[in-house]
Amino acid sequence: MGNFRKVTEEERQRIISLLKSGLSQGKTAREVGRSKQTVSRIARAAGISSDVTAIKKAEAARLDFAKAERLELLNEGFQKAREILPTVDSAHKLQAWMTALGIAVDKRRLEDGEATERGDYTHREAAEKDLEEYFEALDALREGDGEADTQ
Questions:
Q1: What phi and psi values does residue 93 have, to the nearest 5 degrees?
Q2: Count of alpha carbons within 13 Å of 80, Cβ hemisphere only?
């Protein structure tokens, strides 16, 4: 006979647990390092259906839960960004803050199913020049000369 390894009770329980959580038989087999036939035999013996629609429903529920967690985390990030804003006291810190906020906004839009659009810039140098001028103007305002124009 071939390389036969008896399935331990611990492995059997892990396989059953993974299947009940909605993982497919194929993914379960890969996860535990066993053949699909072994996983299928254990599933049948445990009375676990291999109904594909039930597995897909469980997977969708798991993804919805993960999305809810991601949205909650993004909302916490927005709150933290709001709390940090008053401490932003230099152009460099503002740039980092704005970059982080922009990424968070893009991620939130993607989670909400909205397509994100990129800026009108076609050349990186033009965008960097505009951003540099904006930060210089902000620094000038902070230094108190009041003559800076951020437009």
A1: -65, -40
A2: 10
Task: Give yes or no for a contact between 136 and 149, defined as CB atoms under 8 angstroms apart.
Answer: no
pLDDT higher than 50, residue 84: yes
Q: pLDDT tens digits for 87-126?
A: 999 999 999 999 998 888 888 888 777 765 555 555 677 7
User: Considering the chain, what is the average pLDDT of its residues?
Assistant: 81
pTM (2 d.p.):
0.37
C-alpha pair distances (Å), 12 with each of 15, 22, 46, 65: 5, 16, 10, 27
Q: Round to the nearest angstrom and report the end-to-end CA distance of the chain.
A: 79
What is the C-alpha separation between 123 and 128, in angstroms, rounded? Answer: 9
Q: What is the CA radius of gyration of the chain?
A: 27
Contact 16, 40 (CB under 8 A): no
In whole angstroms, give the CA distance from residue 85 to residue 94.
8
